[in-house]
Amino acid sequence: MRAIVTFRAADTRYGIDVSAVSRVLERESIRPLPDPLPGVSGLVSLSGRSLPVLGLLAPAGAHLLILRSEGLDFGLLVDEVTGVLRMRASDLQAPPAGQAAPTVLSTVADTLLLDPAVLTRHLRGAAAPAQEATGGPEPTPPGRTAGASAGCCSPTIRSSPATLPRRRCARPDMTSSPPRTGPTPSPSPASTCRT
Predict the structure, then answer these.
(1) Over the stretch 142-177, which tens digit does the pLDDT of each residue have?
(2) Contact, 31 vs 113, CB < 8 A?
(3) CA neighbor of 81 nearest in space, from 19, 2, 27, 118
(4) Which of 70, 82, 175, 180 qualifies as a FRET site for 7, CA 20 to 30 Å off?
């Protein structure tokens, strides 16, 4: 027999092997994390340690599963913990097709069984998929020279310059969107940017 902690997130029933779950908590205050990976909601303090919190399934979830996988402790936001399901290996069905990553290991009735190792790899490796795929650094975005400084008014580039928000600067010599190539003037401490 295998034991699965079951929970609900966004009207879908999920499960995760009980061996990966160390605690179930009410949602605690989650501190923001500067420049988080996609799906990371922030940090939660637990026993004097800061743990990353994934909000992939339920960003506004009311409960927090504390998981441990591949030597990493982290939180997973869920809407509601529904119980523990005991099942036999013969109850497992094939994983659904169409997944970008094998996050869902299998299904049991109406429950999607998650792989905690894939969630861990998301936390560890989602920052540099281009580097992993090509073995080198991410390509330089269009309209930007490699290693160029962004300056005070240029947002971090994650998309093409045409989709960047326009910004006004207190100093007329600072760049505006889209960013220009070449050297960017250094901002003075007195300069400020407004969105």
Answers:
(1) 443 443 333 333 333 333 333 333 333 343 444 344
(2) no
(3) 27
(4) 70
Are 24 and 5 within 8 A, CB to CB?
yes
Q: What is the pLDDT of residues 32-87, one digit of tens each?
A: 999 999 999 999 999 999 999 999 999 999 999 999 999 999 999 999 999 999 99
Distance (Å, whole) CA 154 – CA 178: 8
Residues 82 and 90 sit within 8 Å (Cβ to Cβ): no
CA 92 to chain centre: 28
pTM: 0.64
β-pair type (12-17, 111-114) = parallel
Report how far apart, in Å, the C-alpha atoms of 65 and of each of 124, 188, 192 are. 18, 45, 41
The residue assigned the tokens 């036999």 is: 88
| 170 phi, psi to nearest 5 deg | -70, -25
pLDDT of residue 81: 97
Picking from 103, 42, 101, the residue whose alpha carbon sits closest to that of residue 75 is 42
Q: Where in the chain is the domain with CATH 2.40.50.180?
A: 2-125
- Cβ distance 4 to 15 under 8 Å? yes
In the sheet that holds 49-54, the strands lie side by side as 21-26, 63-69, 72-78, 49-54, 40-46
CA 29 to each of CA 25, 58, 68, 175: distance values in angstroms, whole numbers, following the listed order:
11, 15, 20, 37
The CATH class of 2-125 is mainly beta
